[in-house]
């Protein structure tokens, strides 16, 4: 009896010691619409408190993937777990907030009533002041009593953000959250995502605005033609750095030394050396020292960093393999 | 819980979209016209002389059925056109996305929509129908033999049609679903009249048209049951058997088996709608 209790206690401890299940876990998602394959073998996960960016061209299958995660579209194959529950169980969405790409709310309700409805559907007890705060957070405090039918598109998207945030989510899925917003609104969304991240809320962000993604995301999944073309942390994806050099008096020994540092491409007077991802910061000084030692005249050395946009374009144009 | 929330939302939509007001105006106009018409019945000079109160009651009973048919038509068209957009329209516009991403079962959302529409449709039929019966009572002193049964059957007819409209709207576009549902309603009524004429003429083949259509879509069968509950029991005798097939008199009350079939029909159609909605990609 005592040993049973002790065993139960220790297994509970062991469970408590386990890291929480990921906010999103999906494996082998597949979806065909007629003869067109929209999503093909997509797997990824979003850890608790992590911000994951979903990137890809139009028709890459981003929205289909999001809808499959939320049970809005039935996958032909694959599994989804949300916050530790199978997505076939509606309770998996209890702490999920969602702003759809196509954001429409009941035009005959007021903004406050839309939030009330979603709180009821989420079966939560969110008091009125918290709901008001939520509207204030997206800049709609003044319009709480106005019918949604009279809202502009940007205001409806702001309302959608409030709907996604109102039921104390642990995971927020934002599908193109800034498509109808002005530049100020975009900054608001960026701040909002960063504030969610600081509170440990996981965010899945689908956006065409790469700069936005680069600023707020911890990791990125790039989809192309329904498949994962590349994925990794920003450091992994952008970790590849380059150095541009303008040199004089190059000989074979110097060229061999350059190649030892990384792959070399030449454009006019300039040579570009791609540095290894695990570069610890000594490759460039060592290279310059050795080149000078070999009698090469060093006119210019320019370290470069690849932007997410360049990386995305390279992946989509199949110029380099995804990591 | 989810179902009740959605039912409340559906009723609020009906009231805020001014469907209620439009129906109210239409109904009040119909009631006022009928009150005026009925008040002229008593003492009406015909070629055969002044109409007696007994004859007036017979005419009132036929006219009550005629007006009730108008009322059921308003309810049918109203709910069918409300039922289509409420489900399919929300999916098309994107309103359903945010709702269905909540921790809700689709069948519960559907049940909520259905309950809201049933409350709205039945509420309208009962209130408007009762008002019409009272108008007839005040103007010509006619009170139907079983008004409660009649109103309940009219309400059931509305439920049948809106359930069908919901199923159609999960398969075809919202507007088309309303048109098809009302079209089927009308076709079944005509088939019922044709069948009754066939019965009066003793032509079994023609009579079967009505029977089959009443089984396929129970609106006409329920309507005939309702008419029977509203009409004067002596009306058929007075009209004579030769007048069988008259579209606003019914020969017999509904059999319990037919009521059971109508209930089963509603359950099956509802189940099909739930299945289709469950599998639908939003």
From TrEMBL, chain A:
Keyword Heme assigned: no
GO MF entries: ATP binding; ATP hydrolysis activity
ABC transporter domain location: 24-250
SMART domains the record matches: AAA
PROSITE patterns noted in UniProt: ABC_TRANSPORTER_1, ABC_TRANSPORTER_2
Family membership noted in the UniProt record: Belongs to the ABC transporter superfamily.
Lineage per the UniProt record: Bacteria, Bacillati, Actinomycetota, Actinomycetes, Geodermatophilales
PANTHER family cross-referenced by the UniProt entry: ABC TRANSPORTER, ATP-BINDING PROTEIN
Protein name: ABC-2 type transport system ATP-binding protein
InterPro entries: AAA+_ATPase, ABC_transporter-like_ATP-bd, ABC_transporter-like_CS, P-loop_NTPase
Protein keywords: ATP-binding, Nucleotide-binding, Transport
UniProt entry tagged with the keyword Transmembrane helix: no
UniProtKB/TrEMBL annotation, chain B:
Molecular-function GO terms, alphabetical: ABC-type transporter activity
Chain ranges passing through the membrane: 19-38, 58-83, 114-136, 148-168, 180-201, 258-277
Domain of life: Bacteria
Glycosyltransferase recorded as keyword: no
Gene Ontology annotations for the cellular component aspect, listed alphabetically: plasma membrane
Any Pfam family matching the protein: ABC2_membrane_2
Entry keyword set: Membrane, Transmembrane, Transmembrane helix
Protein name: ABC-type transport system involved in multi-copper enzyme maturation, permease component
């Amino acid at each position: 009896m005592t040993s049973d209790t002790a065993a139960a206690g220790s297994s509970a401890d062991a469970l408590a010691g386990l890291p929480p299940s990921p906010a999103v876990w999906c494996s082998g998602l597949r979806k065909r619409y007629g003869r067109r394959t929209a999503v093909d073998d997509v797997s990824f996960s979003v850890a608790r408190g992590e911000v994951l960016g979903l990137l890809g061209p139009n028709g890459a299958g981003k929205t289909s993937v999001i809808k499959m995660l939320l049970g809005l579209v039935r996958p032909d194959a694959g599994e989804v777990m949300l916050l530790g529950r199978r997505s076939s169980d509606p309770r998996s969405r209890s702490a999920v907030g969602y702003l759809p790409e196509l954001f429409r709310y009941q035009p005959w309700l007021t903004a406050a009533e839309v939030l009330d409805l979603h709180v009821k559907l989420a079966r939560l007890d969110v008091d009125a002041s918290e709901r008001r705060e939520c509207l204030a957070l997206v800049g709609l405090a003044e319009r709480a009593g106005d019918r949604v039918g009279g809202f502009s598109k940007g205001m409806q998207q702001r309302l959608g953000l409030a709907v996604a945030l109102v039921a104390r989510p642990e995971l927020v899925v934002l599908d193109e959250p800034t498509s109808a917003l002005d530049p100020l609104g975009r900054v608001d969304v960026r701040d909002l995502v960063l504030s969610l991240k600081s509170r440990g809320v996981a965010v899945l962000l689908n956006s065409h605005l790469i700069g936005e993604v680069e600023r707020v995301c911890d990791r990125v999944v790039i989809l192309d033609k329904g498949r994962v073309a590349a994925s990794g942390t920003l450091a992994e994806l952008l970790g590849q750095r380059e150095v541009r050099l303008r040199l004089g008096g190059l000989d074979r020994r110097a060229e061999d030394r350059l190649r030892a540092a990384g792959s070399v491409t030449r454009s006019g007077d300039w040579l570009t050396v791609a540095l290894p991802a695990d570069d610890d910061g000594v490759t460039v000084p060592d290279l310059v020292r050795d080149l000078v030692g070999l009698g090469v005249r060093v006119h210019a050395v320019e370290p470069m960093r690849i932007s997410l946009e360049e990386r995305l374009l390279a992946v989509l144009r199949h110029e380099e393999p995804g990591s | 819980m989810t179902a009740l929330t959605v039912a409340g939302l559906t009723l609020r939509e009906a009231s805020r979209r001014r469907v209620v007001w439009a129906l109210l105006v239409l109904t009040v106009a119909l009631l006022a016209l009928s009150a005026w018409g009925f008040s002229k019945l008593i003492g009406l000079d015909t070629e055969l002389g002044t109409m007696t109160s007994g004859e007036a009651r017979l005419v009132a009973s036929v006219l009550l059925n005629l007006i009730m048919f108008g009322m059921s038509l308003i309810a049918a068209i109203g709910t069918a056109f409300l039922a289509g957009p409420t489900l399919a329209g929300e999916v098309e516009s994107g309103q359903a996305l945010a709702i269905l991403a909540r921790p809700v079962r689709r069948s519960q959302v559907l049940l909520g929509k259905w309950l809201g529409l049933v409350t709205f449709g039945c509420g309208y039929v009962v209130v408007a129908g009762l008002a019409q019966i009272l108008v007839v009572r005040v103007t010509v002193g006619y009170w139907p033999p079983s008004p409660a049964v009649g109103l309940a059957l009219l309400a059931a007819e509305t439920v049948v049609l809106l359930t069908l409209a919901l199923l159609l709207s999960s398969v075809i576009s919202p507007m088309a679903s309303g048109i098809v549902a009302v079209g089927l309603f009308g076709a079944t009524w005509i088939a019922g009249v044709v069948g009754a004429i066939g019965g009066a003429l003793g032509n079994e083949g023609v009579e079967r048209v009505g029977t089959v259509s009443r089984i396929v879509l129970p609106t006409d069968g329920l309507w005939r049951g309702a008419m029977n509950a509203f009409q004067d029991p002596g009306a058929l005798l007075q009209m004579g058997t030769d007048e069988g097939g008259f579209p606003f008199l019914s020969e017999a009350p509904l059999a319990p088996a037919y009521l059971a079939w109508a209930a089963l029909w509603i359950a099956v159609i509802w189940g099909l709608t739930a299945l289709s909605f469950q599998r639908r990609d939003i």
